[in-house]
Design a protein that fits this description.
single chain, 122 residues, mainly alpha, Four Helix Bundle (Hemerythrin (Met), subunit A)
């Protein structure tokens, strides 16, 4: 993960291509991410606290497409690992650290995307 945080962790080139530069549509996808993904990550953290590691994969699956569309490659790798390991009941001991890494990156990306929305609305 990029610890500098001056460079955006996201890449909007896919969305710009799909929506042909329509900023309103790109912003709608960003807003959806900001509403949903932190909630999914919070639910994943609750699963970790309850030691319900097998309940992680549906949450990771729900978050996956939003993360992918925003070009969040590091977060996407972790989400895919969480989904696979939880679903297949493998390497379960690694899941708390993976969820923690997703939370840290989610917090940074949340701030970066919020700033992106603010600047595109100006």
């Amino acid at each position: 993960m990029n610890t500098n945080h001056s460079e955006p962790l996201f890449d909007l080139s896919y969305l710009n291509q799909v929506f042909q530069g329509n900023q309103e549509m790109v912003n709608n996808i960003i807003k959806l991410f900001l509403e949903q993904v932190p909630e999914y990550v919070g639910e994943m953290e609750d699963c970790i606290k309850r030691n319900d590691l097998l309940a992680l994969h549906p949450l990771a699956h729900k978050a996956k497409s939003s993360i992918s569309m925003l070009g969040l490659t590091s977060m996407e790798r972790n989400i895919l690992d969480i989904e696979k390991r939880s679903k297949e009941h493998i390497e379960l001991e690694s899941l708390p650290a993976l969820v923690g890494a997703v939370r840290k990156e989610c917090d940074v990306v949340f701030d970066q995307l919020s700033a992106q929305l603010a600047s595109s609305a100006a």
